[in-house]
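Dear colleague,

Following up on yesterday's call, I've attached the two folding results inline so they're easy to grep. Please treat them as preliminary; we haven't cross-checked anything against experimental data yet. The first protein's sequence and structure tokens come first.
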Amino acid sequence: MRDRVGIVTALGVLTVLCAIAPLVGEFWSGVLARCVSWMFLAISFSLAYSYANIPSVAQATVFGAGAYAAVWATSLVGGNMILIMTAGAAAGALIALVFGALLLKMSHSGAAIGTIISAVTFSMLGNAAVAYTGGTDGLPMPAQAFHLLGMPFAVGPNIGMLLLGSAVLAALLVAFWLFSGTRTWRVVRAVQQNAMRAQVLGYNAAGYRLAVFAVSGCVAGLGGALYALISRHVAIEVVSLSMSLKSILWAAVGGVTSIYGGPIGVLAVQLASELLLRWTVRVDLIIGLMLIAVALWMPRGVMGLRRPRSSQQSQ
């Protein structure tokens, strides 16, 4: 069943962002551009948690892999943005495949603990491998004449990157929406709801879960590549555990069972954070209270408010 309300809402949010970008100035255009890159991370967590049934607390590790791959690839492919984004997506998918193959051998709670350990370990390794990651100082994006489909393109926190990120995300969401009406997606849903029963019916439940987790990694890696192009700099904090926890917060606020909730969650949390910073330094405390409130009174997030729980069939 295709979620028409979800896709219209998500595309509407992206359209509004693109429409107001020329009106809000350079600073806010940069903020919104980064928010769009983080939307990929929130969506990747929703895919991993709700459809692959893997509680991955290391999605930022995959996101960071895509970001670093984009920086490294720039030195090899020049300023070809298509190849740079492809490198990020491929790196994310590869890391997710390795993670997924290991996590599927663990219990649900064991997988959560395993991803926490992985996130901390990769963060420590990144800090140690300063020659490749830049450590806490990070790596700048190599100076190149960036181009997209043969046309010069200015990377950085600007309106152009906001429009590009929104266009890529919109295409991704439409692709998911179209795919959600296929027989393959119905099998994915069946595996998600009862993997053992799907296995008895002849479906390779582990294979489907691994495939979905790899797709979630591809999405996160693509977002990481866009983040690198927007920030023109990547530091080791992008693979940190705190970044992974942010992805969980974004997905929870938007609706963790819906891939269309991620954009709403990112905007709600990040814009609230930016505004609160002008009034208080205790932003993390307030955002933490927000998460508690969401868990208590909106367990299905914003997208879960649009219809009764009994009919919730988010895609």
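Below is the second protein, in the same order (sequence, then structure):
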Amino acid sequence: MRILFLFLCLTTVILALENHADEEVISAEKHIPVHKPRGYKKRQLEDGDELLLSQVVWRHGDRAPTGTYPTDPHKEDAWPNGWGELTQLGMRQQYALGRLLFKRYVNATKPLLKNSYNSKEVYIRSTDVNRTLVSALSNLAGMFENGNRGADYPDSKRWPTNWTPIPIHTLAEKDDPEGNVFAPCPRAEELTKEIYTGAGFQKFVAENQKFLDFVSEKTGKKVIMPEVYMVNDVHYIEKLYNMSQPDWITDDVEIKLRNLSQVSTRFLFGIGDPYVPELIRLRGGTLTD
């Protein structure tokens, strides 16, 4: 039986560890919960099945924080490429993922792709954000490093070793509902407002207002519940890079920030309480169309 269509969603959340070889995909050091879609049932492969198409979706590699709060001593100059940009470790992670994709789809018993890049076989799509574009470039450098000199890239001493230029397609963020979950959508914005003014979210805020006031005092910025993610993100990334942390970031505060960030994000995307299927479809459904 031939598989006419296979949708493979490969979401990578990979953290950087210096002692890993370039061909190893760097695993997350902490458990990351996987939320299985409701009603989803995995199809079991049968003898004689043949893979004809694979759609692989992955996130960007390790990045700098997208910003910070007033009292944070680590400003933008602490990050060589600036706020929100892919780090060198993020580039390594994506290169390693590219090598994994090479092994799975090119250097396989029944390869799906040719050994070198073929424009009729591969289409690469990225959001219009620096870190995702650079992630795509880094990934493809690993996936298609076996190109032929003089055919896939110039036979020139000054040309980067084994680098085959591969086109990456994108759209402006405002015109990209597939890649940008916050692309303009009046109905989605209406539903989000209903969630934030609803009893469930307001109860969640009230139960944690004292902690929000504490965080606001320490950061020098009034922090409302949807912004807890930013504070958690800054602290989490800085800690990965062994940057000093303020005394008020105790173990208990760290856990509280992470938990509130996760719950707040579920409300934002309609997967909390209330569960809002329409919002889920509007924000993420276009990717699976």
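For the second protein, one point worth flagging: Residues 88-105 form the longest helix (18 residues).

Best wishes,
A.L.
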